[in-house]
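Re: weekly structure request thread

Next one in the queue (251 aa):
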Amino acid sequence: MAAAAHPSPINCVLIAGGKYHDIDYARLELLKLLAEDARIRVRVFEDYENADAIQKADCIVSYTSDVIPSLGIQEVLRDWLHEGGRWYALHGTNSVLELREDRLWDAPRSAPLFMSLVGSQFVSHPPIAPYTVSNVAPEHPLVAGIEAFETDDELYHLEIHGPIEVLLETECHETSPGFVEGDHAIGKHPVCYLKSHGDGAVLYLSIGHARSHHDMRPLIEYWNSEDRGAWARPAFYELLRRGLRWMKREL
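Done, posted below.
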């Protein structure tokens, strides 16, 4: 068959790595979703430091916690986005974590360019408990038909690096003990949003916490439960699939 008769491959970079989360679980689930489209060819990394892979990618998916690219790679990401790249940033992609001597978690503002690209920085979250995610853009194809749903996940208090287009949001009714800025968590917070960069864009989704028995080391030797958060909710998988379609420019 002539080459023009074949569908073109879609080059995707999946970055899955970091602390205090079941990265293995999330990586596998995302790879299974990506495998639903045979056109997608995936390269998998634990960090962002392969500039060549990023520059050759049509799209990026990230599920990380406290993984910050070097400044040079941040600049590569900036240029890649402005030239039309699409990046689906999940959960802790926007986190920088520092445990202080007083045992409080801080969110140092040490990566301003990176956070401006993602569109927000994680600041704190209250103890994991059920909360409601609401649809604030019901006409947008990324969330059309998604009814309000409840999930038991980390409710992220975000510092916004706008402008952003909020699609889903939630309301926090309690503070975040254990975090330096936990007193500021009460209020409304985006759960899903779009941020444009030139010809490209970032789609961010804050839910998706996963943690298993060995993921809190060295802080805790053995975590007694397997936490799946939004991964146990059909609505989350619908959002993931729609995000991947957006990433492929089908939405």
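Helices lie at 23-34, 51-56, 71-82, 112-118, 234-247. The chain has a mean pLDDT of 97.
Next request, please.
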